[in-house]
Amino acid sequence: MLVVSNSPGWPEVKRQFFNREFFGDSLHTVPSAFLLNVKIFIVAEVFILALALVIAVMRGLPGPVFFPLRALAVVYADLFRGVPTILVIYLLGFGVPALQLSGVPKGELFWGTTALVLVYSAYVSEVYRAGIESVHPSQNAAARSLGLSHAKTLRFVILPQAVRRVIPPLLNDFIGLQKDTALVALLGPVEAFRQAQIDVASDFNYTPYVVTALLFILLTIPLARFTDWLVVRDRRRQLALGGAR
Amino acid sequence: MNTASPGLRIEDLHKSFGHHEVLKGIDLELAPHEVVCLIGASGSGKSTLLRCVNLLEPIDAGRIEFLGEEISAPGVDGNRVRRTIGIVFQSFNLFPHMTVLRNVTLAPRNVLKVPAEQAEREAEELLRRFGLLEKKDEYPDRLSGGQQQRAAIVRALAMKPNLMLLDEVTSALDPELVAEVLQVIRELAESGMTMLIATHEMSFARDIANRVCFLDDGVLLEEGPPEEIFSAPKNPRTQQFLERIIQAGRL
């Protein structure tokens, strides 16, 4: 800290990135634009959690009858994990509205969010799948031996255990998604990053970028602590007296 | 035994995993209320046999009849069959994210559609009978091994099965916890439950079984009343197996 603030270039850095005056100014513009990021994030997350679960379950369907669905799930994950997110956003955000199909929404926000849902569902479905496969086969045998169907075994026995185990990696993807909401700006909507760009362009001072970065971090930290708390609470409940804690 | 008995009948059952044939043509019958113990070395096919009877493993050849129905026939709904056959595993396999009560009521409520209140009342009744009522709101990991295994037995009984399969249910327990579980099984036998029991507890088998079957390398080598098998085994492999057991001080 001291070394940095005593170095000869520090006043210049401070003026460019941590300027009190511009900081105050951008607090009037960036946080309200950041609300759009939060909105995109929340809407996308709800759909991702649902769609990813469907894909993960599809991939685990037993028997030769379901081969097409299993294959579809594999192709989906390969495809949307393989293509750069930014490309999917461009393809959907600029490509689909250009087709001028009737009955198909044209909003950039809609297509930007859809692109994020498609891409992140591929990642999250793999996280779910890892969780499902981490549940010991004896749990499946025990549930099936009681007469529960494959679907009910998944719902009551396998998925509740699987999801608990993958909460930390799920959070990883949540955070990735929060940050990638900034990519939707490429289609036009003015969210926090775009607003900061506008502010920077008018004053040639980079403080608004720092404000934006702070906002993203402020959103992430409570979420991280919340999931930590969830995991600990669950472990406490299941193990004798909180286990090794 | 009467051939028209509506118990369990296994005919020429074959089962392989890959190239390894685990069961090489098993024939076995169980009359209602009969208790049969399967003995034999680890890897002799006892567990696989039980899992096949419960349709947890598909069979390669042969047939299994239960209560007069060929349950191994193609197209039979395995879920329906498994409702009436309970199995208890060596490693308990309780659901760790549910309380004991919820473990026991899960299948009655969601498979048999018993109303929640009734399912809980019946579960509490069973838990009381097996000395677990005060543990009903605990999670399985907070129980001792013996308590967990008794809870697993209660969970299977809650489906009111016609047949119970016990797969080395005391093998994962500390020696001092074995007795409480064996006592539960003894009580079940006395209440008339039909049971097929794979076990390493020879003195228990001698005590409780109507018949003992010696399984060796996927073949049912010898069967008969326990006094006969344990004191005058005919097959040399059976003699060898029992000698080793006696040497190990397990009989």
Q: What name does the CATH topology of chain A carry?
A: MetI-like fold
Total number of helices of chain B: 9
Give the total of domains of chain A.
Answer: 1
Instruction: Give the biggest beta sheet of chain A.
Output: none
Tell me what portion of residues of chain A adopts beta-strand conformation.
under 5%
- Low-confidence stretches of chain A are 241-245
How many separate structural domains of chain B? 1
Strand content of chain B: 15-25%
In words, what does this structure look like?
Chain A has one domain: MetI-like fold (Orthogonal Bundle), CATH 1.10.3720.10. In chain A, 79% of the residues lie in helices and 0% in strands. Chain A has eleven helices and no strands. Chain A is globular and about 70 Å long. The model of chain A is unreliable at 241-245 (pLDDT under 50). Chain B is an alpha/beta fold and 251 residues long. Chain B has nine helices and ten strands. Chain B has helices at residues 46-53, 78-84, 100-110, 116-129, 145-157, 175-190, 202-208, 226-231, 236-247; strands spanning 8-17, 20-30, 35-39, 61-66, 69-70, 85-88, 163-167, 195-198, 211-216, 219-224. Chain B has a six-stranded mixed β-sheet, with helices on both faces. A four-stranded antiparallel β-sheet of chain B has the order 2-1-4-5, covered by helices on one side. The two termini of chain B are 28 Å apart. The A-B interface holds A 138-139, 141-149, 152, 156-157, 160-161, 164, 237-240 and B 51, 54, 56, 78-80, 82-83, 85-87, 89, 91, 93-97, 106-107, 110-112, 139, 141-142, 152, 155-156, 159.
Question: Which key phrases capture this entry?
Answer:
heterodimer, A: mainly alpha, MetI-like fold, 11 helices, disordered C terminus, B: alpha/beta, Rossmann fold, six-stranded mixed β-sheet, 37% helix, 24% strand, globular
Topology:
The complex is a heterodimer of chains A (about 240) and B (about 250).
Chain A: H1 2-6, H2 10-17, H3 20-59, H4 67-82, H5 85-98, H6 108-134, H7 137-145, H8 150-165, H9 167-180, H10 192-203, H11 207-238
Helix pairs in contact in A: 3-4, 3-6, 3-10, 3-11, 4-6, 5-6, 6-8, 6-9, 7-8, 9-11, 10-11
Chain B: E1 8-17, E2 20-30, E3 35-39, H1 46-53, E4 61-66, E5 69-70, H2 78-84, E6 85-88, H3 100-110, H4 116-129, H5 145-157, E7 163-167, H6 175-190, E8 195-198, H7 202-208, E9 211-216, E10 219-224, H8 226-231, H9 236-247
Parallel strand pairs in B: 3-8, 3-9, 6-7, 7-8
Antiparallel strand pairs in B: 1-2, 1-4, 4-5, 9-10
Helix pairs in contact in B: 3-4, 3-5, 5-6
